[in-house]
Known about the structure:
The complex is a heterodimer. Chain A is an alpha/beta fold. Helix content of chain A is 51%, strand content 7%.
Amino acid sequence: MNSNVKEVRNIPITARVERLRKAVLEAKPILCSERALAVTKSYRETEGMHYIERRARAFYRILDEMTLQIWDDELIVGTLGINGRRSAPVFPEFSIEWMKDELEESLETREQDTFEVPEYVKRDIRGIFDYWEGKSNWIKYRNLLPEDTKHVRDAYVFSRDLFERAGYGHTAYQIEKVLKVGLSGLREEVNSKYAELDLTNAEDLEKKLFYDGLKICFDAVENYAKRYSKRAFEMAAAEKNEQRKAELLKIADVFSHIPVNPARDTWEALQVVETMQIVLQLETSGDSISPGRMDQYIYPYYKHDIETGKYTNEQIQELFDCIWIKYNEIVKVQDYESIYVHPGFPLTQNVTAGGVNLDGLDATNELSYMMLTCQEHIRLQQPQFTFRYHEGTPGDIKMRAAEIIEYGTGMPALFGDKGCIASMKRAFPDMPEENMNNYAIVGCVELSPQGFQGRVNGGFINLARIIDMAMNDGIDRMSEEQLGPNTGDPEKFESFDELFDAVKKQLAFFIHHQVVNAMVVDYIQRENTPHLFLSSMIDGCIEKGRDMTKGGSRWGGTPILIGGIATASNSLAAVKQNVFKSGKYTMSEINSALDADFKGKKNGKIRQDLISAPKYGNDDDFADDVMVEMINAVFAEIESHKDIDGRNYSTFTVTLGGTVPMGWKTGATADGRKAGMPISDSFSPANEGKNGSPTAIFLSAGKVDQSHFTQGNILNLKFTKTALGSKDSKQKLMDMVSTYFNRLGGQEVQFNVINGETMKAAQKKPEEYGDLIVRIAGYSARFVELSEELQNDIIARAEHEAI
Amino acid sequence: MKQSESQVRGYISNIQRYSIHDGPGIRTTVFFKGCPLRCGWCSNPETQKLLPEEMMDLKQGKKVITGEEKSVEDVIEIVCRDKVFYQESNGGITLSGGEALLQPEFARAILDTASACGIHTAIETTGFAEPCVFEQVADGADLILFDIKGIDEEKHIMNTGVSNKTILENLRAAAEKKRNVTVRIPVIPCHNATTEELQKIVDYSVSVGINRLELLPYHRLGEPKYRRLGRKYRWEGIPILTGEELKMLKSSLMIPDGVELMII
């Protein structure tokens, strides 16, 4: 490869790509009703049929009825909604109730994630409310949820996050297989399994229903491709410009072949990826449909195209740029509650580059470089771009990655193979090494070895609030409600260990209810909205004849997402220091200071002492020991549970924008954080208190056995541009990251390289900063599309300027 | 670590981890307190006086003590924490300041202890000390980042408070002894930021046998510290050089073959 690096390292952007970028940058999110109408019509017609058949038929109808768009200049095509480049469909079968309130005004005016909603769309959506009354997954979930679980869930100590109101998504589906065998190959596989069925056996009858559903899905996508081919052909016939006419004819030709047949070249392969992005999201309503290791599975097509002279490197770069832009068109509409956790349209379609090949050797190739260049050319919030580092990653591509990071989009996020694979080994001791080597990142950080499809996430839980309840006998500080169990009058605790026992009891209580909540959500999904077409591309589902929502994947599990880790452990450390070690304050003095939100002179003094206590992220053994003790207790509690498929629960952390809404519900905490302020982000240090050097942060993070984060963790570091300026600085930054990955067991690092001043300027003049992308935690978003409070939180997160 | 050596104590202003501009690789820079020079542009005025002193803390809204007495052991404990990062990046420890030569026993003990731990050592120094003192410390460092601020003695006295005679002699001696020396030139407007002045520094350095030089652009990040210390900033209102100006200055200099000049 080395001889080719020069040719592919830095290919310039084309005028077409610049035009496409501008068009998507200027496009406002708009609501689309076509999918909602099609699915409603189908559900009306299929009343009484088996739910699998209903899903399959609905999918067919959606793909048969939705208008097909090919925008100017496009080579790679496909749209999720039809009335604009950033058009969002509606998924009433998952949830629609919230729209009754939000459709009329707030969707257009709310603080973030606003949509243009044309009058006809409002009319269309209003027209289907009656049909869906009592029928959506959301309502069924609410009706089935036990009252005691509902009580704590609705207090927002935890929630199942998106999956209460939407499908799962979150998958690195088998795109490589689809490219190689086409849908016709999948169909053949289904047919041969079908032939083996013994229908005197009830289990096989269930398989038959599943396979019947898949066949309808294959028909649906084949029909969709035919329609696209026809549409492109018609447009070509009407096109005056000869060059564009030729391009449209090419698009028609591409769709006459794929995705039914195996892809023949890079263009076709990329179009299959794009088409799958669209149809899978139209089917499942899930986000984070992740195309995985594009530099690996596209490579054979690329190599062939270059060797035969079919395309030049410049053409391949342009095609990659085109799909990079397409990822940015995909937006989804969420309710008012969800947007605070997932602000800024995080479709987190994760693409992965770099890392090792199946044999564990360096996998970097020309396309890895081209993908970095895509990020340089496009610099928007999607795709979610991951670069895998291992011990043998060439220095040159790390430097190229550092150059791209310097643009400040927070991407690529860097993942360390060593730490990530250690997690997979813990989770799946029997998994072949090559499956692990071939892992991709899904969504924000979810580690997905080949053949793994988990239950996405078991929802997030606010650890900061639970720790605080241990200090308050189960009473939620802000609502003053008894949410947790009575775990003892904190004043009577004679040692830190007694306080810690209370922590464990609170944890056990809330995690139990979280697991119940997740169970209900998963039950509703599998009984109502199987993800059929997606399942056909999940390793194991066709083989077992079982949908992914029923545990059809080869390997799986459910991770719980922990929020406020540093806030929680810093609170415990501050109490340990001030109450049990120095004896400076009593537990009740601390509690009354927290109750008063530190108001008053004495409480202000207490706050100063709490803030000065040792904090995680400073390589301070006192603080880090508390962190390790606490997080191990969390791991143990979570790992004691099994999910609906009988698979293990595990842990991961990526708080997304959830630091803000979780903070609203969290009273003052003993780390000195005031009531209502954001809780700490992911696995990063908290905003409160001293923040150590980046090396100290890495060392602190390295003290935790990260292999328990089987679905990954995030360490957000913010650097100003000056810290990355010279080649030498970049080299040192990359050396630091490599140390974290190769020596300290680190899994992930991401950088925000923006000056606080820039962000403040963007707050004042949002119109001038439309393309300012910031890293939130797990994904990147357009800064100006976030709420002011979240913007302020991002500015406050520790800024590291090398001196 | 020898018991006696580890207990040597000295005054430290700050220990900065992940320092990336003070020598090769990722480094921990130990800022000594106390400096015999009073450069008008100094960006670390809190390191000038040897003893701890009061400085306004803006967060707390009151004066707090800056600087503290530490033992070699205290310093090394912090320095050793980042050892994995030094190993991966070929980094190490740098003594800066302030002026480490003002506390020679303390400085030398830190260098020796770090070396014994397998850590690469560097000092960043004004070079202003009795030759035997300079020798005593320099001998313990793997790398010397030697600041040369100007050749014109009168100007040097006016702007830094001291003559440059000993400094230039120490540089010559270090070069003669074949020590690993990089000359660092702070490029200061209204002091030496002209082709003529800089060329003199280059020429002198090259003449004594130095072949690595670095230009450090003047910055004003230290200015607020003067206010917090209740002192006057002599370089107030003097604009910084732009990156372009610096590049032009650099390209105006005559650099012999085999000599490297970089902007840091």
